[in-house]
Amino acid sequence: MITATATALDAGLILANVLSPKVLFFFLGAIAVFLNADLEIPAPLPKLFSLYLLMAVGFRGGMALAKDGLGGQVIPTISVSILMAAVIPLICFCILRLRFDVFNAAAISATYGSISAVTFIAAESFLQAQNISYDGFMVAPLALMESPAIIVGLVLVRLGSRQARPGSDGIGMDWGKVLHESMLNGYVYLIAGSLVIGFIASIYSPAGVEKMEPFVYKFFYGVLCFFLLDMGIVAAQRFKDLKKAGAFLVFFAILMPMFNALIGGLVARALGLGYGNALLFIILCSSASYIAVPTAMRMTVPEANPRYYISSALGLTFPFNHTIGIPLYMGLVYKLIPASI
Asked: At CB < 8 A and 24+ separation, what contacts does 172-175 make?
């Protein structure tokens, strides 16, 4: 049952999200940087926790997909999500070319056309806290939206630049590396593989799934809080780079996700998604990658400055979405989606 009002954004919804443990731990990490506190998370732990979160979300999504099947809204939602991952970079690129060269505009555009798995996971936790139901198949678009954004970003570089790089195919791109990085990035591979395993195990090994449930459910929120503590530290460290990037990118890092959220909300309405699924779809449209796409851009577009596409996504868009964005987008869902859905 939906406990929040569907008429307007309740300021209490934002307050409840900001004061949730996961966001408070994020702030704890960020404040530690600003106060020069001696807080440091050992390097292997954040990576381990991120892998756990991706595996757990993918496995749970596979379980839900096995239960609900591939009918109804599943295929249309997945198809439109992939389309959005290709369209959003094009819109971003047109805006960013007002201030940036082709390389930086394309790299930033690909970053904002992709997704943040942790933001998606935080949105799931938000929905659970509000007792709003959603479908597990929404994890499938999460696993499929990284690659199109990377490919579109690199196509924009190819079309916008006349500088061909030696050792490639003569048009400035080694497409073998591009396709490998975009489709077999470790994080994409893990969540997609976990989705498939959860789907198969739910059908053929119910006893194995039962043994996995404590691992993918009971420890999940605590690990998320610990991971966001580290992300608060990293985001605060990137904030200095963001200030050097200029006001244009600062405004872009906040306003572009909000614009993408509006487009995502309208598309979710057209798809007939319910409240929970609509919020997750909006999050997929309005978040930005800070792991997979930056890794690909560093490898394939060395002319682009990582200060721009990493600091904007991680230093501002990520904390904005986690603190204000998620409840703000929930208010948008209430305004756009009919209560009968």
From this structure: 173/300, 174/300
- Report the interhelical angle of 102-113 vs 146-160 (nearest 10°): 160
Are 232 and 97 within 8 A, CB to CB? no
Instruction: Give the Å distances, CA to CA, from 2 to 121, 134, 232.
Output: 19, 11, 30
Counting as low any pLDDT under 50, the low residues of the chain are 1-9, 163-171
CA-CA distance, 248 to 226, in Å (whole number)?
32
Alpha helices in the chain (DSSP H): 11-18, 21-34, 44-68, 74-96, 102-113, 117-129, 139-144, 146-160, 175-183, 186-204, 206-213, 220-245, 247-271, 275-286, 292-300, 306-312, 318-320, 326-336
Q: Cα–Cα distance between 300 and 54 in angstroms, integer? A: 25
Q: For residue 136, give the DSSP letter.
A: G
Structure tokens that stand for 8 in this block: 């307007």
The 3-state DSSP class for residue 220 equals: helix
d(CA 225, CA 142): 21
Give the distance between the most distant pair of CA atoms in the chain: 59
Question: What is the rounded CA–CA span in Å between residue 136 and residue 313?
Answer: 26
CA-based nearest residue to 137, from 77, 52, 213:
77
Q: Is 262 exposed, middle or buried (0-12, 13-18, 19+ CB in 10 A)?
A: middle
Q: Say what percent of the chain tops pLDDT 90.
A: 51
Q: What is the DSSP letter of 195?
A: H
17-46, pLDDT tens digit by residue? Answer: 888 999 999 999 999 999 999 998 888 888
The 10s digit of each residue's pLDDT in 142-158 is: 888 888 888 898 888 88
Residue of 181, 130, 126 lying closest to 153 (CA atoms): 181
Rg (the chain; Cα; Å): 19
Cα(145)–Cα(152) distance, integer angstroms: 11
